[in-house]
Amino acid sequence: MKKRNLTTYDIGDLQEHFKKTFHNSPDLFFYEMKRGDSSILFIYLKNLVDLTVLNQTILPSIINNTKESSVDFKKLIYQLPTTLAKLTDDMEEITYKLLEGNIFLFSPNAEKGLLINLEKKVERGLEKAETESLVFGPKISFTESLSTNISIIRQNIISEDLCTEKLTVGKKNEAEIRIVYLKGMADEEIIQSIRSQINSLQVNDILDTSVLAQLIEDNSYSIFPQYVQTELPDRVTYSVERGMVAVFVDRSPMVLLGPASLFNFFESTEDVYMRWNMGSFIRFLRYLTMFLSVILTPAYVAIITYHYEMIPSTLLVSLGESRSKVPFTPIFEALLLEIMIELLREAGARLPTKVGQTMGIVGGIVLGQAAVEAGFTSNILIIVVALSALGSFTAPSYLMGTAVRVIRFPILILAGIWGGIGISLGLCFLLIHLIRLTSIGVPYLKPIYPFDKEHALNTIFRMPIHLLRTNPDKKGFFSFRHQRSQDIDE
């Protein structure tokens, strides 16, 4: 069917066209203004338009500048008190712009209509970060407004080398995406890879940055996140200045950072704000507790089931007394407690904040005590499971903490079946997977594998600032240039 040109419509036809297009929506509003022998038809979706600006600024200006018998939008566009106006006769563009909060002015005598952007922004103000809480450093977080988030980064990185590329994704509901990086610091191949992956997406809508991350990851089947997701502007600033690429999505308060290594998920900008020795201790503590979170409960099950000779005789008596009333096998007992902990965590997260905190503390104490008295589990296993749960919460990244909690279950089952051999088998498979995993083509275990002595020490520990300062024109710790996996193979 041939598309009709705007000049073939009269006011009545155009009203019927948009009523049909928007399915007789009650939000669609028409207002006809008589100017001499001609008329101007205003079309807009009233819930998306700032009516105060329309009534107090745009309408008086139009009335004062359209007194002739015919309306000339080519002259009017230069007399309006706004720069967000354009002439068009593209019906598809007009429809799309109406959904973005524009008003459309139509006159039967004009070749083109006039679009004026009067979008009414519905957004929350800058607030304290909830997901990633900090003791030191800036407390504000990103919002759902893309323009606000980009302006925050512009204020933090005052440089002409800061580049922001605009992309759009979504067939039915277009979402604006921005790729942000520092020219000369970020790897051009990585930027091109992200750009091509986003442009190749064939989806109806992008709901959030987490959805985008799943669509553009190198391995979508892996449980490990391959992009760092953060709501902290200072972390984005810190990462972009070191050569990483940030991806912003409109209507989402989270930002993607890549390429990411496993160790990036255990780092926090708070490590930089603290003294280097304190920051090093806390960072090393995170690595240790996350490893213990994976291994502690499976090790208990393996030792109790198959390797009880490893337990000192004094402790063995205590374990025997603790388990004397428990009718279940160690593997079933451990799985029961682990699932109970996960239920408490999930219930606490879904309840209101104050109720959720009470639920987690009181529920854990009551259920743990009741389980021991009822003979469902032993005192020692409750301590082991509690330490494992605490260890998984030390990761600054919520996604990585969740991944660690999930990994614990298959290793726990392997420990119950084959004991220490099962744990070794599970850890070997996990290590092989991590070695093969990449993030935008960069090895996931970089800089430990392949080993990069320049960055390895600062990855495990937080080195003193004066040792990290290098010439800004050179590639040092502050640039964090990544080596591609294909370069490593060569």
UniProtKB/TrEMBL annotation:
It comes from the Bacteria. Keywords: Membrane, Transmembrane, Transmembrane helix. It is a multi-pass membrane protein. It is found in: Cell membrane; Membrane. InterPro entries: Spore_Ger (IPR004995), UPF0353/GerABKA_families (IPR050768). GO terms for biological process: spore germination. The chain crosses the membrane at residues 284-306, 378-399, 411-435. GO terms for cellular component: plasma membrane. The keyword Iron does not apply. It holds the Pfam family GerA. PANTHER family: LEUCINE ZIPPER PROTEIN 4, SPORE GERMINATION PROTEIN. Belongs to the GerABKA family. This is Spore germination protein. It comes from Sutcliffiella horikoshii.
